[in-house]
Design a protein that fits this description.
Blueprint (H helix, E strand, L loop, with lengths): L2 E2 L2 H21 L5 E7 L3 H17 L2 E7 L5 H12 L6 E4 L9 H7 L11 H9 L7 H12 L8 E5 L6 H10 L3 E5 L6 H5 L4 E4 L16 E5 L3 E2 L5 E2 L4 H4 L3 E4 L7 H16 L1
Parallel strand pairs: 1-11, 2-3, 2-4, 5-6, 5-7, 7-8, 8-11
Antiparallel strand pairs: 9-10
The structure holds NADP nicotinamide-adenine-dinucleotide phosphate.
């Protein structure tokens, strides 16, 4: 029988731990403040931003919301980011992605001060992860490491296969698994004989962005499978990059969608905000 890795429960544990830390920090006179910027009114982004504000309120972090119109220019957005960089009251800055097409996302990300880049996307923080020094790490992969550790999954010495090499999931995920002494293989759209590789994985991370892409034929019997994908299926229900029904019986542990990786991303954003003050 396989274990279902419960991201809802683990993320709640983390948020409760952080709430205690924030109370202690406040007692020392240290307040935490996160600035959240949204440009336009994409419904999915509004849901994510709303959830981030709710998590801040739960933990005791102040959140400043900047809801800018769709037609905001890149210069206007960069000016706001620079102003928040220089505001001592603000500890973290988050710009909700995706941005409207007329704004260069990378220019915005690189303008956020690395010390306030709680999403961990700035080149300085990515570089820090590469060389193993301190810095903010992208929240989704950071959350996956917590899911594994808090579910008793050993990473050290294990063959970890990551499908996907994006800057926000696949690449930082691979670096974090390496930092935990996993033996890491990264697969992508040009990988040949993908299944031959994934079938060697003790821990398989699916960050492909394709609904139900990974089924039982990708999995070694007893592997641990982490599903990063979020999609709506034909019945408008959430599903992941893994075909859960087919894959789960062949795993020793697996994350569901919803209730697996998703809730961890916000919990780790809160973790990064608290670390910015600690
Ligand atoms: P992405 O930028 O689209 O990257 C997808 C990766 O999968 C790319 O590296 C791509 O390879 C690779 N790929 C595509 N087709 C493939 C194939 N047939 N075989 C092997 N590799 C293939 O997506 P992402 O931003 O990393 O996100 C991945 C998934 O996670 C999405 O479903 C996204 O919605 C979800 N997500 C969830 C959270 C969360 O909080 N749970 C957070 C972020 C993302 P190439 O590089 O060669 O194109």
């Amino acid at each position: 029988m396989y274990q279902i890795i419960d991201g809802k429960k683990i993320s709640q544990e983390i948020k409760d731990e952080l709430r205690e830390k924030v109370t202690a920090l406040k007692a020392e006179g240290k307040d935490i403040c996160l600035a959240v910027i949204q440009v336009g009114s994409d419904p999915a982004s509004s849901v994510y931003v709303g959830n981030k504000k709710k998590a801040c309120a739960y933990i005791g972090i102040e959140s400043l919301a900047y809801e800018l119109p769709e037609e905001t220019t890149q210069d206007e957005l960069l000016a706001l980011v620079r102003r928040l960089n220089g505001d001592d009251k603000v500890n973290g800055i988050l710009v909700q992605l995706p941005l409207p097409k007329h704004i260069d996302e990378n220019a915005v990300i690189q303008t956020i001060s690395p010390e306030k880049d709680v999403d961990g996307f700035n080149e300085k923080n990515v570089g820090a992860l590469c060389v193993g020094s301190k810095g903010f790490v992208s929240c989704t992969p950071l959350g996956i490491i917590q899911l594994l550790k808090r579910s008793g999954v050993e990473i050290s010495g294990k063959h970890c296969v990551v499908i996907g090499r994006s800057n926000i999931v696949g690449k930082p995920m691979s670096l974090l698994l390496l930092r935990e002494n996993g033996t890491v293989t990264i697969c992508h759209s040009r990988t040949q004989n993908l299944k031959e590789i994934t079938k060697q994985a003790d821990i398989l991370i699916a960050a492909v962005g394709k609904p139900k892409f990974v089924d039982d034929t990708f999995i070694k019997e007893g592997a641990v499978v982490i599903d990063v994908g979020i999609h709506r299926n034909e019945n408008n229900k959430l599903c992941g990059d893994v075909d859960f029904e087919k894959a789960a019986p062949h795993t020793s542990a697996i994350t569901p969608v919803p209730g697996g990786v998703g809730p961890m991303t916000i919990a780790m954003l809160m973790y990064n905000c608290v670390s910015s003050v600690e």
